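User: I'm curious what two different proteins look like when written out as structure tokens. Can you demonstrate?

Assistant: Sure. I'll show them one after the other, since each token string lines up with its own sequence. Here's the first protein:
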Amino acid sequence: MGSFKSAEIVSTKEGRQYHIGLKPGELAPYVLLCGDPARVRKVADHFDQASDPIVHREYVTVTGKYKGFPLSVMATGMGPDNTEIALVEMNQIVKNPTFLRIGTCGGLQKGMELGDLVISSGAVRLENTSTYFVHEGYPAVAHHEVVLALLEAVQKKGFRYHVGLTATAPGFYGAQSRDVPGFPPRNKELPQQLERMNVINFEMETSTLLILSQLVGVRAGTVCTMLANRHLNQFIDEENLKKAEATCIETGLEAMAILHQMDRKKGNQKYWLPSMGIK
């Protein structure tokens, strides 16, 4: 039998991507990513101007302008597999994008409070989607400019925040050691093990986002709002959930505006330096 040949990415003649449903010109170079499709409208409400949503499968995208620069927001749905599809296809239609995940998470360290923000400096790869691209030991690291922009944003906004390593799980229940009747997790001690390693939160997308962005050479990072306290087995109530989501959205928008300013300041230089300023 003959060997299989690698297939090109599936797209239309105009370049419209098979899963996300976007073609060149429909995605900005600055992209906010979230899991929940309803969050796209909440983000787009802050835009100066916005396109109609482009909806294909579970992917929902709005592109417009925020503080005068082009910005998109896309809902990818939940999980590393959805993130992989989105990252691969977006990189086919826009040059040198910047990706910033604005998500939700569970806190693993004592002293963290519901509604706190968590900025990921890197991620523990509990998922295996990224291993189909790189070695298991390949590190998932947030781009330093994105981390700096997020730090500047939360300081400016005055929000409570933490910075550190995120654990990216491939699921919500067993993969995060939630003990649900009838579905006991294989490793009940995983949260405690991660806490001892100074990992600060659990979520389901970041390591894939960071790995694929590093692989293709573009910037990426994550800020999440903490909806669950794993130490106290608490989950945020509906009223405070809305507030927590709003702070994450505001932080993501402000960080993208700061990144745009940083890009203008550095001009032809590859990296932004603190001496360049951002005003």
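Here's a second, unrelated protein for contrast:
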Amino acid sequence: MKLNKLIKLSDSSSKAVNILNDYSYQDPQINEEKVKGYLPNKSSRDIIKSILLSCSENTDEKLHLVTASYGTGKSYLLLILANLLANKKVESFVDKIKDKENYYKDGLTKNLQNHLNNSSPLLIVIPEYGDYDFDHALLEGLKFALKNNDIDYIPKTNYEEAIKTINHWNEKSPHNYKQLKDCITGSTIEKFIEQLKTYDQSTYIEFKKRYKDIIGNTFSESHTSAYLYIF
């Protein structure tokens, strides 16, 4: 008898995972299909347990660095963690953990059930892999996550403060506004503001330079960064 008569590849299996494309904020069925295809081994169980434990308010150990060779399943593991931390529908995954509990004896089943029963959903922020600037990637990911979770909130950042400053000049200090408008290179002030809204670093750097030229002082950068929101 041929092997393909005895062994069938799961429809939910995946050769490669891209978290940005494979995680859905609004469609639980998409997430459930991906979760079905994951087979946790000892290493992934250890990582999952460690991260779930760090969600407790009783610990300050919130940051984890997951490293491994290319193709070893890091992205797939992070996709599973995204679903667990957001308290998505993961019954099939819980069953897999229970099924191997007697073999691994790592207590993950109890830990996982406790998390799903007692923890509030966390906001999942996924940065763009290929972004040239990690801070920009975090801010864009945060904005996207807030929007897709229907959370009406704009993070207080240096970019937002720069926009507020420009709008304030437009209303209260037309001389300053005109100076900025006249010295912006290769763009209109409307496009300049739109680029700040997308957290474009080069636009922000130019704003700081123009601000110092106009005001005579350095623009304050004491506003909240993405890292304080994420971590």
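A detail about the second structure: Residues 101 and 109 are 7 Å apart (CA to CA).
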